[in-house]
Design a protein that fits this description.
single chain, Lambda Exonuclease, Chain A, Ribosomal Protein L15, Chain: K, domain 2, Four Helix Bundle (Hemerythrin (Met), subunit A), four-stranded mixed beta sheet, 18 strands
Length: 593
Amino acid sequence: MTLHPDPSHDPDGDPQLDTDSTLEPTIPKIVEPDGADLLPARAVSDYAYCPRSYFIEHVYGEFEHNLETVEGRFRHRRVDTETGATPSAEDLPDLPEIPGTSSRSTAVLLSAPTLGVIAKLDMLEIRDGFAVPIEYKRGSRPPTPEGAWEPEMVQLCLQGLILRENGYKCEAGEIYYAESKERVTIEFDFILVDRTLELLEQARSCGSSINIPPPLVDSPKCPRCSLVGICMPDEVNFLRLRDSLPTGSVRQLVTERRDAEPVYLQTQGLSVGKDGERLQVREKGKVIQNVRLLDVSQLNIYGNIQVSTQTLNELCRWEIPVCFFSYGGWFNGIVQGMGNKNIELRRIQFRTAADPEASLRLAKRFVRGKILNQRTLLRRNYKGINPAVLTELTRFAFTTTRAADFASLLGIEGAAARTYFGNFGSLLRKSTESDLPDFDFSGRNRRPPKDPVNALLSFLYSILTKDLAVTSLSVGFDPLLGFFHQPRYGRPSLALDLMEEFRPLIVDSVVLQLINTGEIRNSDFLVRAGMCTMTPSGRKAALNAYERRMQATITHPLFGYPVTYRRVLEMQCRLLARHLTGEIPDYPIFRTR
């Protein structure tokens, strides 16, 4: 392939866009074939690059941006707006015989019902009666003999085939590389056309399957893929072959932490609006806080705080959930956009939940992980603990594997909880200062909690439930249907299942920190009619400590790389999905050492 000089280029190689045309673009009407959907040309290109990433994005409907995709979108902005007039194929013979380019249009949408493909062409030029599709790419021309990667050539070739089905003469297309400011001409010869049609049929067959393709093995494509945090290729391969691979042999392809973080609002009377792509928090009409939507992972509203309709609409568009709590901290519900489109995962979730044996197997994993992590918390923080307590918790954890039914498993969990909470009070510091009173704890109570320690536990368990409900929704689950916690009206049973192993690691640990460091005091609680509630200052201190814990970096016990607890929650949800879809044999509990 050779570079194609074009006198219409500007001096720096960037094609000139005719934005002054007053003619409306003529775009053929899309007609979908009976019984089939039109497959986007870009989807076939994605399949050529990696069948698994194609499946995740175009079948599961999941996508994430990274630095490269954001930059690509920025580079692409000039050809995302419809400009110019596109003559129909029938009108081409009537055009005046002018050498060179006689027509140029951008963002041209065309479909080929017979081929079953649709594409939006970045640019379409008519030259001497021939249609020339032009595709924009953010990077530089690759060092290949053809001057382009196969997925790029396949996408361009499909655009050429679509043009042919619409009556245009199309023998070649071009790829413009924005970084190196070069155009590469791609001839649509029979070899490329045959390969393109082959990949089209493979992509269509893959898309109609319910089985996700296996991940690539140690591929150099994975580190630059924006879907790597969803795909988890090395983690899935490790769990499939863990008997032959050492712990810690997994590349860290997912980021340690996400840039976006939750926003909590609890001051009564606040209002939330938007200004462009920023959230604006107002108090009595005055803006007190500006936050970029890019930096917000979720918006949490406590009590009487108003959110404008325009803001809710924008948050839904950005897929940022809005979580509503009562003034006292009761988790009421979530408002979000369309969310994850992976209906097949929810179908598998419902089938598994309807199978008592499969549900019991998962429930045993959740409970075992919880008990082992409770044991770890006591061992680390209670220096004078009776070794018999640790032995008893170990016995309970391994007895879960022999539970014959849910009643037996609930009995084991209850016995372990009594042992654990019976010693939890000994972890609390006995204050010698007058303004730091003792926090007595004699056991777990709730609905309502009767003392400060139980009030703290209930409040933070509610926050963790919310986080796992949001995360499970984003992965594609229905958070109301669990495997251990049975369905009950309005209860996020799956979130409660997933939080079992994280109760001691996150919430119980935060409670110990708050009390033993004096971050929270007796004045941060109110006791009325036997019920203990937290003041706004107490909730603020608890939320701050909770978020610090969620952002704390730990070494993953299986994969060996650093990661935050917030990222771990997402990873566990995705690993549960991989287990349910049959990719990995067991759900791997998260157990710290």
